[in-house]
Design goal:
Layout: H1 3-29, H2 42-48, H3 50-84, H4 86-101, H5 104-114, H6 119-144, H7 148-156, H8 161-198, H9 204-214, H10 218-246
Length: 255
Amino acid sequence: MNITWQKVLVPLIAMAVLLLAWEALVWYMGWPKFKMAAPSDLWPAYVRFQELFWIYGWQTLWRTIAGLLLAVVFGTLIGMVMGLSRIMNDALYPILVGFNAIPKATVVPVVALMFVGQHDFNTILIAFLISFFPIAVSVAIGLSTLEPEYRDILRSLGASRFTVFWKIALPKTLPEFFGALKVAVTLAFIGTNLVEIITPHGRGLGHLFQSAQINSDFPLMFAVLIALAVLGIFLYYIVVALERIFAGWAERSPT
């Protein structure tokens, strides 16, 4: 099988098997709709609320992307500082670990009280706070593990510190960076939906999920969850495409 087609067909087959297993489990257990929805129950929910899915889906998506972009910029800068300075690494790493250990569900009400009424800002901020940590750590590790021989050779040839960083250190961190970015994509969605659910303000798929939960509409609840999964997969494959463009050289050839 062609490698390109394999990368497309295998995930699709895996998803189809998962949906069939889900459908079979609901049928075998005899669960009613008000207890557990089956995949066959979701399409009517999409048709019935299709306009809301488009509106709320876009609201969730753009705020997630905005938070993720901030996480990329801030996380990369922090990672560079930590990776290029042992003192800054020792100073910042415990702070970042401690902050990341705080459940973000407890941070959401604090942020909502600090910035009352700034719904978009609050959502983007939480998405950023929950997703920058893996990016910062990956960049720091990539830079700190740079072989000193490369640095010494280039410096002996008259290369500046900036040239060493730009030509050697930065490209070396790209595989670790994109690996962390794949994780950060899912974390950013978690942050966005935490705000939409915990501090409901009538926006985003989190609000639609909360409304379905209040009305005990299980098909709509699961339809929202699947929509979130689809958006997450969409962003994930965008990152994969960017990785192949900028760090394709690090991809191992199939054996």
